[in-house]
Amino acid sequence: MIVPYNKPTFKRLYTPILIEQFFFMLMAQVDMLMLSSYSSKAIAISGISQQVILILMLTTTIIHVGTSINFIYTINRKKDDIWLIILEVFIINLIFTTFMIFIVLLTMDWMILFLNVPKEIESATRQFTTVLLVGIIFHSTTMLISTLLRTMQLAKYATWVSIIMNITNVCLNAIVLFILVHNISDPVIAVAHMTNISKIIGCVIAIYILSKQVNVKPVRLTIKRLITRSKMIVKLGLPSAGENISYNISQFVLTSMISLYGVSVISGKLMVQTFNSITFTFSVAFAIAAQIYFGKFIAKHHIKIFKKIFNTSKKVIFYQTIGIHFIVIIGSILLMKIINTEHVVFNIIFVLLFLSIALEPLRAMNVLLVDVLNVYGDVYYPVSVNVIVTWLLTIPLSYIFGIALDGGIYAIWIVLIIDEFIRYLLMNRRMTSKEYSKLHFNTE
After folding, report:
1. Number of domains in the chain
2. Is residue 252 part of a domain?
3. pLDDT band at 4 (very low <50, low <70, confident <90, very high)
4. CA 421, CA 366: separation in Å to the nearest integer?
5. Rounded to the nearest 5°, which phi and psi values hold at 3?
6. How far is the C-alpha of 277 from the C-alpha of 283, rounded, in Å?
7. Domain range for residue 90?
8. Are both 230 and 283 inside the same structural domain?
9. For residues 29 and 14, which has the higher predicted lDDT (pLDDT)?
10. With helix as H, strand as E and coil as C, how does 266-317 read?
């Protein structure tokens, strides 16, 4: 019998990736989790702002993914070349991020209008988002450095930076919300400032670590090289980042629809999104580790071994996701009881969490399928499936059943489950078809 995969080897890949992914997820969600103890309006303000920020951060991953692929090709060159490339990608990332922040500032009023933000939190949402935008440059720089450190086989440093940044953020937010809450005129906006401080601290530590790992010396930068490097990075990063960008823009649109039902419903949706992100983090980490582990079998054209590993991995990630999500449900209910979540919001969260028992395993298997297809070099098919299914099926059906027929958020959630199921059928069929195997494997 062939063992599907070497568990100790897979575990050594999976564990550090899981830790890093978990803390990056926590950085995006901790504000809303902690503000949930303050009010449902605070949840909505933070959650809607994070929707805007997430779209911006996902566009910067084009640079980060492209940098990772490009850097792998040059990692074995002499140290002078590596330092020059690092400086170039730093400048490219800074220019790109600054440009995107400028675009968000120019279009913020339109986005708030598009999201149907309730009037009573419109001004606070605008202010909260503006404050968070200041910290994006530091967060984007930290993410870029983490990408470089992982490529240089120094993932442990990236993990520690993420841990320190998150612990700092939690401590600063706790001081604002539980100690100084009565001495601050607007604790919600103060939380945004504390988040920025933690991002600055993380960025400084990350820059220091990177400077110790490379030979820092004066180099000659040219506009021509920067333009060439920019084109190369975008060409490599855009297809891989495209699916996530499309998916999260669709979430942006769905948030706009759900906002029509008021603060309580949007608060419930955003809290469930936060709780589900915990489950999803395990799925993403598993998929990334599997992608790395599968690579050697795909490269050597070991089709029989790969198929056994792949089929086993689908079962593992399916059952793992269900188990983790049940734990998340229990933890979420206990947390909501402790912080005395409003009754209406609690009921919405409760129902959506149980509907997500069907949603999250499908999402997990789709993430695995996308990463495996990308190992093949098949980067365009997942993006095409995402765009077609999302914009020709999911968004129209969500509007019809959720808004036009007044099915509300529960109808929209069921449409999301159907969305993930259709994606799974399409990508799994492509992955397992005989024609596809013949195309990518020359020998056994």
Report:
1. 2
2. no
3. very low
4. 9
5. -70, 130
6. 10
7. 36-239
8. no
9. 14
10. HHHHHHHHHHHHHHHHHHHHHHHHHHHHHHHHHHCCCHHHHHHHHHHHHHHH
Residue 20 within any structural domain of the chain: no
Asked if 189 and 124 count as a contact pair (C-beta separation under 8 A), the reply is yes
Which 3 state secondary structure label does DSSP give 177? helix
- Which residues have C-beta within 8 Å of that of residue 294, sequence separation ≥ 6? 306, 309, 310, 372, 375
Element at 394 (helix H, strand E): none
End-to-end CA distance of the chain: 17
The three state secondary structure string of 426-439 is HHHHHHHCHHHHHH
Q: Which helix (H) or strand (E) holds 444?
A: none
Do 356 and 230 share a structural domain?
A: no
Is 361 inside any structural domain?
Answer: yes
Does one domain contain both 436 and 288? yes
Burial class (CB in 10 A: 0-12, 13-18, 19+), 44: buried
Q: How many CB atoms lie within 10 A of CB 121?
A: 22
Q: SS3 for 260?
A: coil
Asked if residue 13 belongs to a domain, the reply is no
pLDDT over 50 at 6, yes or no = no
CA gap 281, 239 in Å, rounded: 22
Residue 108 pLDDT > 60, yes or no? Answer: yes
Quick one: 281 and 427 in the same domain? yes
Per-residue confidence (pLDDT) for residue 8, from 0 to 100: 47
* Tens of pLDDT, residues 216-255: 777 777 788 888 888 888 877 777 677 777 777 888 788 8
Answer yes or no: do 207 and 291 share one domain: no
* Tens of pLDDT, residues 407-442: 999 999 999 999 999 999 999 988 877 555 555 544
- Looking at the predicted structure, is the pLDDT value of residue 443 above 60? no
And the tokens for 170? 């939690």
Closest by Cα among 23, 100, 121 to 55: 100
Confidence band, pLDDT 50/70/90 cuts, at residue 364: very high
pLDDT at 73: 58
Which of 284, 247, 244, 282 lies closest to 367 in space, CA to CA?
Answer: 284
Could you tell me what percent of the chain has a pLDDT over 90?
27
Same domain, residue pair 427 and 370: yes
Provide CB contacts within 8 A for 403, sequence distance 6+.
257, 260
Q: To which H or E segment does residue 37 belong?
A: none
pTM beyond 0.90, yes or no: no
63 and 128 in a single domain? The answer is: yes
pLDDT digits (tens, 9 = 90+) for 184-213: 888 888 988 999 999 999 999 999 998 888
Verify that 265 and 232 share a domain, yes or no.
no
Q: Name residue, tokens 């996530």.
A: 244
